[in-house]
Amino acid sequence: MEYELYGMLTLWPKELRTDLRGGLKARDKGDLALSEQFLRRAWDASKTLPIEVFKEEPYLKTSGIAVLLASVLEANGKSEKAYDIYSESLALLQRAEEEELSGPEKLRAIAISYKLGEMAAEMDRVEDEERHLVWAVEAILKSVFRLGEQTDSNHVPEAVITSVPREPSTQTMLSELSLPAWVTKTDVAAPLEALGTFYAQAGRVEYSRPRLGFDIKSLGAQLMANLSELIIRSQTKVNEETLHQAEAWALQGLQITMQAKEKSSSINPTCELAFAVALFNVAALRRMAGDNDEAKRLFTLSLKQSRSIGLQSGIEHAEKALQELGAPADAKT
Asked: Average pLDDT of 229-241?
């Protein structure tokens, strides 16, 4: 039985097999200190090997070793050291050219960044928490939802649904490591929700971070709008609970955008766009809830905002919604 468990790592590079076997065996026997020694050697050795020796989806495999080591460190009460290993692994993923990474590899980076955000929160590292959550959310928008591209509203990209490797051999190799569930089943909504919660905690940190190159507060509003839409799309039949959850996020996004507009000393294009979208989303959800009067009022405000910033798609959608509700597109609020 022992050979079956620890002798099946033949798909891994031969330079790593002995230490991986030793690390897994020691971990399962409860000897976390010995497991750490073996796995640290395997992790260090993996970084000296050419990435090509790991074959298909190599970064899933190298980061898998890092996650295995870090999870042992966490289990042994060494959170700081685990945090460092996760950080090093994420940095290696981030340094890889984006076109080199498969969908599951991108999701692995998102999962690790989100994990670091959670750990930073526990360690009271506020700036690190924000940095990791923002990076995870940006990665979702850029790599998963293909921000800025026109996509079929009924199509959810494959990477959103699954983090399963493409090659059976890769699946086998990763299954041999018995990685924690959070890294094998990535929930792309979780970083969005965590960032929304982060910004909802009033007075904790400033919303705007010039070093990041964009208005974080407006981004937060957009993300909440995206999350409300994702919640609706993920359901074949929208029930009252789902509708309530989606509307809660949409309203929070609208509130954040309004606050940002009030505090801004100049016109912020990102914020103005987010305001038009947030108004439309809340209006659409009010319509789904059967509150047509409020829906008309909010669609009209969205139309007015879209016209003011020249957002043609927003104008068209709002006008169509008002026509379907039997209200003139130039109705007064």
From this structure: 57
Contact 223, 195 (CB under 8 A): yes
Burial of 24 (0-12, 13-18, 19+ CB in 10 A): buried
The DSSP result for 165-207, as a single string, is -SSHHHHHHHHTTT--HHHHS--THHHHHHHHHHHHSTTSS-S
Residue 125 has pLDDT above 60, yes or no: yes
3-state helix, strand, coil in the chain (%, to 5): 70, 0, 25
Q: Mean pLDDT throughout 46-56? A: 94
Cα Rg of the chain (Å, integer): 23
In the chain the first and final C-alpha atoms are separated, in Å, by 73
Which pLDDT value is given to residue 92? 94
Dig out the tokens for 1 from the structure.
Answer: 């039985």
Q: What is the pTM of this model?
A: 0.62
C-alpha torsion angle, residues 155, 179, 85, 87 (rounded to 10): 10
Vertex 111 angle, CA 106 and 117, to 5°: 130
C-alpha distances (whole Å) from 307 to each of 72, 215, 216, 257, 258 are 56, 22, 24, 18, 18
Instruction: Quote the CA–CA distance of 59 and 55 in Å, as a whole number.
Output: 9
